[in-house]
Design goal:
By secondary structure, this protein is of the alpha+beta class. 41% of the residues lie in helices and 18% in strands. It contains eleven helices and eight strands. Strands 1, 2, 3, 4, 5, 6, 7 and 8 form an eight-stranded mixed sheet that branches. Strand 2 (191-198) and strand 3 form a beta hairpin. It starts with a helix and ends with a strand.
Length: 289
């Protein structure tokens, strides 16, 4: 919706474009201000999730309005290099951990971090887009970096294997096998000691193999049957469409999407999206036979 609003505003204001900045910078200025307006106006929160029948989590987090983004759509976006001041590569900026970290920042800090550290605009350019002083941009950026980087994975953690590499395929294949066999112990054995399981927008967050294992065993018992999985990719990360077999039929219906965050040969995070309506965006079928 915001992209549509941005393009409509640009079309209507085309005659006022004076060429003092690039078309790219002009469009980002419109998009940024439309996004800031939407963030200030939005006060949506999910219903109190503590009434749901789930084990007590490690902690309650702020509800996040987060959806996975299909890699197949990212493949069609031109890979334009960011400006020289950018601190993050494109593949880092689309990772779920990065997107989640952004959502914890106030709107203006979020905008400044994206403009400066992701897109690489200079402080003066960001100030002009946001209609604030350059000093304000620098102050917002310092605060945003401090708050944002404290939420990113620890610097000493092993890096994820390269996408579609043999190392990544091996970890993903082992995880898929454990899921389809209903082997919770096998799933837990793949986790790092500080692994997280989260389920946006629910604020339940489970950390550590023992706690995550207890949650997964409870879910397996409630379902009464092992899931079937189909591999896909989201936000530059391996993912699975999960299907729930139906009793007395040969059909399995769309159930949830798992996105994995890898660290070396292990899994450091599982993000569970229960909204099966997103399956078509990933080219995943509604049912399996």
């Amino acid at each position: 919706d915001l992209l549509q609003e941005t393009l409509l505003a640009a079309w209507r204001g085309l005659e006022q474009f004076e060429g003092r900045a690039s078309v790219r910078a002009w469009l980002y200025r419109i998009a940024t201000n439309r996004s800031l307006d939407a963030l200030r106006a939005s006060r949506r929160r999910p219903e109190d999730p503590r009434v749901t029948k789930m084990p007590e989590p490690t902690c309650w987090t702020e509800p996040l309005w987060l959806e996975p983004y299909p890699d197949v759509l990212l493949d069609g976006i031109p890979d334009e290099a960011p400006g020289p001041d950018a601190r993050y590569e494109t593949k880092e900026a689309i990772a779920l951990a990065f997107v989640v970290g952004l959502q914890h920042l106030p709107p203006q800090q979020r905008a400044v971090l994206v403009l400066r550290d992701v897109l690489g605009y200079r402080a003066a350019e960001a100030a002009e887009m946001l209609e604030v002083s350059e000093a304000s941009v620098n102050s917002l950026l310092r605060r945003a970096r401090a708050a944002f980087e404290s939420r990113l994975p620890a610097a000493g953690r092993e890096r994820a294997p390269l996408p579609n590499s043999k190392a990544e395929r091996d970890v993903v294949a082992r995880f898929a096998e454990t899921v389809e066999n209903g082997d919770v112990d096998g799933m837990v054995a793949l986790l790092t000691e500080d692994a997280w399981l989260t389920m946006p927008p629910l604020p339940h967050a489970y950390q550590g193999p023992a706690v995550i294992g207890a949650f997964l065993r409870g879910a397996e018992q409630r379902r009464g049957v092992a899931l079937r999985v189909v591999p896909t990719r989201a936000n530059g990360q391996p993912a699975f469409g999960c299907y729930l077999p139906q009793q007395d039929t040969a059909i399995a219906r769309a159930h949830a999407l798992f996105v994995l965050t890898l660290a070396g040969e292990q899994i450091s995070a599982i993000t569970w999206f229960a909204d099966s309506s997103i399956f078509p965006k990933f080219g995943l079928p509604r049912t399996l036979r």
